[in-house]
Amino acid sequence: MNPFKQLLRAHGAKSPIGTWVLSASPIVAEAVGSAGFDWGVLDMEHAPVDLMQLVQLLQAVGNTKMVPVVRLPWNDAVTVKRVLDAGALTLLFPMVQNADEARRAVAATRYPPEGVRGMAGMSRASRFGTVRDHLRTANQSIAVVVQIETPAAVARLEEIAAVPGVDALFVGPADLSGAMGHAGELMHPDVMNLMTDAAERAEAVGVPIGTVGGTPEEVTRYRAAGYDFVAVSSDLGLLMRGAQAAVQALRNVGGAAHVHTLVEGTRTEGGS
Question: What pTM does this model have?
Answer without folding.
Answer: 0.91
